Amino acid sequence: MDNLFILLILPIISALILAFMKSSTISKWTALGLSLLQFLLTIPFLCQFVPDAALQFEQSLPWIMSLGIHFHIGIDGISLPLVLLTNGLIPLIVLSTFSKSLKGNFYALVAFMQAGLLLVFTALDAFTFYVGWEIALIPIYFICALWGEGDRIKVNLKFFVYTFLGSIFMLVAIIYLYHQTPNNDFEWTSFTGLTLSDPTQRWIFWAFFLAFAIKIPLFPFHTWQPDTYTNAPAAGTMLLAGIMLKMGVYGLIRWLIPIAPLGVAAYGQLALVLCVIGIIYASVIAFKQQDAKRLIAYSSIAHVGLISAGVFAWNQEGLQGAMMQMVNHGISVIGLFFVIDIIERKTQTRSLHDLGGLASKMPKLAVFFLIIIMGAVGLPLTNGFVGEFLLLKGIFDYGAWFAVFGGLTLILGAVYMLRLYQRTMLGEVAEQQANIVDVEGYELVVLTIISILIVYLGIFPNGLLSLSEASVFQILQEVKF
Amino acid sequence: MGAIITLSLLGILVLYLGLYKAKNALLPVTLIGLVVALGFEITAWDKGTTPIYHGMVVFDNLALSFSILCIVITGLILLLSKEYFRAISSNVAEYYTLMLFSLTGALLVNSYHNFAMLFVGIEVMSVALYILVGIRKSDFNSNEAALKYFLMGAFSTGFLLFGITLLYGATGTFDITGVKEYVISNPQTISPLFYGGILLVLVGLCFKIGAAPFHFWTPDVYDGAPILITSYMSTVVKVASFAGFLRLFSYVFVPLHDYWTPVLLVIVIITLFMGNISALMQTSFKRMLAYSSIAHAGYMLFAIVAIGVDSASGILTYAIAYSLASVIAFGGLILVKRAHGSDQFIAFNELGKTNPLLAVTITIAMLSLAGIPLTAGFIGKFMMFHVVMQDYKIVLLVLAAINAAIGVFYYLRVVVHMYFKSADEGAVKVSVPLNFKIVFIIATLVTLLIGLYPDCILSIL
Fold first, then answer.
1. Which residues form the NADH:quinone oxidoreductase/Mrp antiporter transmembrane domain (chain B) (predicted)?
2. CB distance from B16 to chain A under 8 Å?
3. What pTM value is reported for the model?
4. Smallest CA–CA separation between A182 and chain B, in Å?
5. Could you give the ipTM of this predicted complex?
6. What is the CA angle A419-A423-A429, rounded to 5?
7. Do B63 and B158 sit in the same domain of this protein?
8. pLDDT in tens, A45-100
9. Which of residues 300-329 of B touch A (CB under 8 A)?
10. What residues of B are in contact with residue A145 (Cβ under 8 Å)?
């Protein structure tokens, strides 16, 4: 049961099964069952994973031999947490849609996207990576544009074309690197083993950086993000923020920095400055938002800014923090968007003007919301604390001033998150919200799982950290600049 | 050679069938004839690398693969034509005959080994089309298109012929091996006539493939012609012209690479931007496809700008991907136009709800044209980028990348209309007849097959 290929095939099979289901109830439960099966199939990988730096469960099938392309996949400590994150969060995301009457085609798109995401996180061949990178984009485009709201057509067209533009430059760089490899192949090891001249690495850096920075998104490439997140359906936002943006961060660690270390040496500081600007900029804007969903969208820019800053600091703490925080951010942000979705469904609004005093009506939701917010803010004993602490330590080792400004995220984050909590949960009860009921059923299940994860990872972060420790150590040894 | 003879005889046979009012036999007979021609091409595979008939034609694998593609695409288009031609003309047999003659010309262009045959092939291919474009006698647009196409076609043939004359003047032979030997044996003393000849031939061929700045006839002609004729022109004719282009430049003019590459490079860049930016502005699906076909000509020229070992298989893959996607797109357009009476984007509104399978098929075609992975179009684009990268023309690639993003923009517009916009005047059910279904299934499956496992095409050339 440790065949990585099965893990990639199952979502595609699920998508094909789900695509033709008309009944909402059946497709919901089928989607949940299949995504849980996918999660169960992931567990053997976790159990059999040896936490050293080696690539494991490797599989290489000949694909396009006339161009030296292999379907080469494998897992190491850097990809395993993200594979777990993907397969763990998708059942939760599916469960979070149970109140809506969605047909099988929605879940088919989610499953198809899962295949693309997993391909990105496991690919050890640049062509395979690129294929995964692109095909993850198609389903999320349809999810956001079909079930979204507001000006969904224009917003998502911008999202699609913007991210496509970024990735096509990456394709140019990948083909260039292919021509440099001694045996003309797309293997990850041949790409990272290249010794390229300084000017070459500089433009390679930009070609990859553009693709990843747009996806993450980093300031100033973030302009698609708030609109897309706000107008997407809740599940779409969860997929985008919870999992998809990790593709970009993963790409930085796996591809960009090992391939173009000299490029990073030249522009890494600039990238870090962009990350830090993004943190402060997004935090300030988040504070001014009235739309709760938009607020979280901006907070997400700030959080991933910090994660990327930790990656560009390129030291043990920074990278480990990034690995940890990628998982944490995925869990927290899904919780946040889910809570907002619940509030919107019960009160028909998510404007902070019209909300207030929900804690008295929904005490259970208030508790869960508080735990999730504490996790997002990074309070001790929650998962966010460990991640942000490591990230800031890493950034501090790189440059104290970066840590000073990056550290503002803790303060600013607390400010806007607590403002969000206060405006929704505390204060006086708005009139039209007099007779709403508390969360129940599947909503409780999702919120409980998320809260348990937040607290558990806050108290026992070592399990997660030890997965990636050896791989991070090795990649730092191999790539220096 | 069997295929060319079969098709010529088939054309005459079909004409006689029309004369004796055997209308129902036209399509089956034509299709059987095409299958026979296909059989001749396939059995000739890997056999003829030497020119035959006094060096007039050569049936090497390059010629055969492009010929097979042309025959298959023509077959698919004819399958779509079952009801189509009857609705717009009473003389159905003429259609089949003219298309078969045009196809014969296309096969000659694929397999010429002598400038005379290139000229004859292009003329046979084009003259039949001049009539086909204007076959809706009472339709003003169709007449305009036919006249424009005829004048421009005649004009460009003039360029081609003049170029061939100059090449003959310099080398004293029409045989392309002879011309090649002249180039190799006189590297220092090539006559200026020869250089002039290359440029004129280049211009003539660029007219035929619709590359900018010689593209001004394409939008109006594509728009005015009946949809099926447009799909034939933008696939078979273009593919054959590219095969001719490729043979000439990869076989004969390669040693003078440094001389003509800059010219072609400029043409490619103008073509890409011209095609893509104009396509962006269109509100009509048919005109959008016309302009996008200009852009695709630009991408296919990549393989000739950076001629190398993978050029032939690159151009073949791209041509297959582009032709199949175009057939789907034009087929979908015919159905939508039949239901709504309009070829504007808005006619596609709500197709995702009224006919989800057709919408998915068109979506796959659009994604293939846009070059998204797991479709044949991506492999085609990938091969083109790969071929250009062998020459390290990174600036060209960056420009191509920007154009690819523009392309996504207008191809997605169709998808947006199909899925996200609601129709004003109630939903009209678009029905898909059986013959369309067959064509769509074949084209979609091959598109996905090449997208998933491109080795089946890449390894044959």
1. 114-406
2. no
3. 0.93
4. 14
5. 0.91
6. 160
7. yes
8. 888 888 888 888 888 888 888 888 999 999 988 999 999 999 999 999 999 988 88
9. 313
10. 416, 419-420
